[in-house]
Amino acid sequence: MTAALRGLAGGLILLLGWEAAVRLFAIPPWILPAPSGILATTWTARAGLLPAAGMTLAEATGGYAIGAVLGILLAILLSQAAMLRRVLLPVVVIINSVPVAAYAPLALLWFGTGATSKVIMVAFIVGFTVFLNALDGLTRVDPAGIALLRSFGAGRLSILWRLRLPSALPAIAVGLRVSTVRAMIVAIVTEMLGSQLGLGWTIFEAVLQIDFLRVWAAILVASVMSLAFFGAITLLERRVVFWK
Amino acid sequence: MKALALLAPLALIAAAWEGSVALFAISPFYLPPLRDVLGAIGANWQAYQAAFLITLLEAVVGFVAGGLVGVGSGIVFAHAPRLKQMVLPIFIVSQTVPVIAFGAIIVLWFGNTLAAKAAIAFYLTFFPVTVNTLAGMEAVDPRQIALLRSFGAGRRALLWKLLLPSALPRIFTALRLSAGLALAGAIVGEWFGAVQGVGALLLAAMFNEQIIALWAAIILAAAVGGALFALVAVIEARLLFWREEL
């Protein structure tokens, strides 16, 4: 409890210090606007920000769902094929080590500036993250546990269902949690390169119009959304992985 | 040995690339033959080399600064639990901010300089390093601390001889993760008006719809990432010499 209070105090001190510094040193808004100014702009620009935020959220969560399902399914498949895994895993790691930002222009050229390119990019990055975490959890099972289940006559499927999946859940949950913030970032980055609607596009436009208060307002909305997304998945994780 | 282990999957990717283009007659709009892409890099070698070095430098400057500050703040937090409780939540929240959206503002602050890209790489690097340094130091067995204390070890000796060395494996886990993030930060930082670097090449190729140049830039980004990972691996091998099989 005291820890939470201290955290709250820390946040308040930061906001007040920020506000005071901006007012005291008369920092122009194009360098650093005051928190109050950002909030006010968010409110006055809400008519434009809301649909943009809805679009970004839809792309991020849609791509997230697709990527998470594909990542987990692929990890389950590869966890059953040791040979294939040994060949494919290094390939996947190399493809994944190229920053997403490098693939984004490709997605735009292939799938256009609509929502499709963003959903595919998000699904791609979430899929990789969840896949690598899930595979790690599925294959790092206590061999003694497998031997025990086998001695009771359990087959592959039963070992997968009763042992591998439950013991991989914490690792899968970590992948799902990390992916929330990444999904939002990737959606925004891809939007910045080219789109018709979305927070990334709002930011890009506002930069061109040198309207930095609107950039900050869009960042605020994006941060609140990504915090909420992160919080929702964390809550879900506590429910599902209750024994942790 | 490690280089060999890397060569095999690279060869596999190259073979699969060339093979599938020939076999399925994939339109060059999606995937041009690998030899064309490599040929484009070879034909324009100096430009690609320059872009490689610039982006690598931006990422390395931000990465090294972020790593040092991250370890430093991890040490401070480990010694000042109250400060940790006040500041760490802010750090955590700050990580859900889509940093890349900041790119525009950071470029505004620093201009189109190396410092702007390095600042983004820094921001992305220091947080994972802070968290893992802290976690590594907090995971040290208290009995070991008690033992060293009983031999008269002070705070400094405790830090250098026990806490930091025990935290090193976790610190390097964070550094490996951050290396990729730092590179992404540098590349996106270049999107806001830079004329040089891998990010600038990516944008130019996209706007001109030159698919070969785009793939060349992606391979270049992979090369910068590889160089960063190699840097971390070399330092890790030096500092963590007591650990077998890294």
Structure commentary:
Chain B: Belongs to the binding-protein-dependent transport system permease family. Chain B: It is found in: Cell membrane. Chain B: The chain crosses the membrane at residues 48-78, 90-110, 116-137, 181-205, 212-235. Chain B: Its main location: membrane. The complex is a heterodimer of chains A (244) and B (246). Chain A is mostly helical. Chain A has one domain (45-240): MetI-like (MetI-like fold, Orthogonal Bundle), CATH 1.10.3720.10. Helices cover 84% and strands 0% of the residues of chain A. Chain A is built from ten helices and no strands. In chain A, helix 3 packs parallel to helix 6 (115-139) and helix 8 packs antiparallel against helix 10. The longest helix of chain A is centred in the C-terminal third of the chain and has 38 residues, at 156-193. The model of chain A has no long low-confidence stretch (mean pLDDT 86). With 246 residues, chain B is mostly helical. Chain B has ten helices and no strands. Chain B has helices at residues 2-24, 34-43, 45-79, 81-96, 103-110, 114-138, 142-150, 155-189, 198-207, 211-239. In chain B, helix 2 crosses helix 10, helix 3 (45-79) packs antiparallel against helix 8 and helix 8 runs antiparallel to helix 10. The longest helix of chain B has 35 residues, at 45-79. Chain B is elongated, with a radius of gyration of 22 Å. Chains A and B meet through helix 1, helix 4, helix 5, helix 8 and helix 9 of A and helix 1, helix 4, helix 5, helix 8 and helix 9 of B.
| Tally of distinct domains of chain B | 1
The Rg value of chain A, from CA coordinates, equals 22 Å
Structural class by SSE content of chain A: mainly alpha
The CATH architecture of chain A can be given as Orthogonal Bundle
Structural class of chain B: mainly alpha
Q: What's the CATH superfamily of chain A, by name?
A: MetI-like
The rough form of chain A would be described as globular
Could you tell me the mean pLDDT of chain A? 86
The CATH class of chain B, by name, is Mainly Alpha
* Helix percentage range of chain A: over 70%
Which architecture name of chain B does CATH use? Orthogonal Bundle
Task: Return the average pLDDT of chain B rounded to an integer.
Answer: 85
Keywords (chain B): Cell membrane, Membrane, Transmembrane, Transmembrane helix, Transport
Protein name (chain B): NitT/TauT family transport system permease protein
Subcellular location (chain B): Cell membrane
GO cellular component, one term (chain B): plasma membrane
